[in-house]
Design brief:
With about 325 residues, this protein is an alpha+beta fold. A hairpin with a 3-residue loop joins β3 and β4. The longest helix has 23 residues.
Length: about 325
């Protein structure tokens, strides 16, 4: 084979986000609801007549051995999951990193899928997700959770239970066609104009959780409760009540980590609420990225966000998960 192409979806946390970090779920168990988006990380692997490893992402690298690669995920993935000839690997994304949509986890899952196809090995969504988590959490020691990798691998709108032993249970939500259409039509993502460092935010959460910080643990416990409530309301089709829960989720998140917001983000959220948004929250660890809001009539919200120079990222849900094609 000569060229392998994969795409892995980015994600939205719909409830319970933050409880997927090992520092929390190994002690108390985690739970969240998340949806995969039709916005992707694309990976291209070329395996013929390559004399050196050529890595093309936001930078360019050309080396003789994978251990020399500077990009940590590319380096460790090749060291652990590739034993063939040198490769050329290129990646591109629909949305840049630092926007809270899980790009790092999607990148790792897409890369591992591509390496499996290039090496003529089968893979499963659960296997890809766990291998990606192992690289990011165990090998690289990043203070991240398992949500991004599992959503990128599985796709769809699912409930994820993070058990204390590290296993993850995945259950697709039972949503009526009407509920699914309303959810996709009335949820909106707006760019705040600010990127963020998820690592810094998550590192703070990780340290405070391990230290038994009561404020942090109480906040995460409440967010997990809201995750369970989100599941029930979404499956019941009670989207207005679900949106009210989004607002509670955002308030709990702000109490847990006040630095995750900013005057710009607060003003955008207030304007969206004044224009009819029932609830919303910042996507990802916080500090920047995209603002997610729900409104039964999206038009006034879109108008005021445009006036405040907050572009919308239109989306639908992805139900395929990480997928790949081999071109010979």
């Amino acid at each position: 084979m000569s060229v392998v192409f994969t795409r892995s979806p980015l994600r939205l946390s719909l409830g319970g986000g933050g409880t997927d970090l090992p520092s929390y779920y190994t002690e108390r168990g985690g739970f969240l609801v998340a949806a995969a988006l039709d916005k992707y990380i694309y990976m291209l692997v070329h395996s013929v007549f390559q004399r050196r490893y050529r890595m093309k992402y936001s930078e360019f690298e050309e080396v003789d051995d994978p251990s020399e690669i500077k990009h940590p995920i590319l380096r460790e993935a090749l060291k652990l999951h590739w034993d063939g000839d040198p490769l050329e690997i290129a990646s591109i994304a629909d949305v840049p990193a630092g926007t809270g949509l899980g790009s790092s986890g999607a990148f790792t899952v897409g890369l591992l899928k591509a390496l499996a196809l290039a090496g003529r090995r089968s893979s499963t969504p659960a296997g890809l997700a766990e291998a990606a988590c192992h690289i990011e959490i165990d090998v690289l020691g990043e203070p991240v959770g398992k949500q991004d990798q599992y959503v990128a691998a599985h796709g769809g709108v699912c409930a994820y239970t993070f058990n204390q032993d590290g296993t993850v249970d995945v259950r697709p939500l039972s949503l009526s066609a009407e509920t699914l259409d309303r959810l996709q039509d009335n949820l909106m993502l707006f760019w705040t104009g600010q990127t963020h460092s998820a690592g810094a935010m998550l590192s703070d959460q990780d340290k405070r959780t391990k230290a038994g910080d009561k404020k942090m643990l109480d906040g995460l416990d409440r967010v997990k409760e809201l995750g369970y409530e989100s599941l029930e309301l979404l499956e019941a089709g009670e989207l207005e009540r679900y949106a009210e829960g989004m607002h509670q989720h955002w308030e709990a998140k702000r109490v847990r980590s006040p630095e995750m917001t900013s005057p710009r983000i607060d003003s955008l959220y207030e304007a969206a609420r004044n224009a009819g948004a029932i609830g919303g929250k910042l996507v990802g660890a916080g500090g920047g990225g995209f603002l997610l809001v729900y409104a039964e009539d999206p038009r006034p919200v879109r108008k005021v966000m445009a006036e405040m120079d907050a572009p919308e990222l239109r989306f639908r849900f992805d139900f395929e998960g990480c997928a790949g094609t081999v071109y010979r």
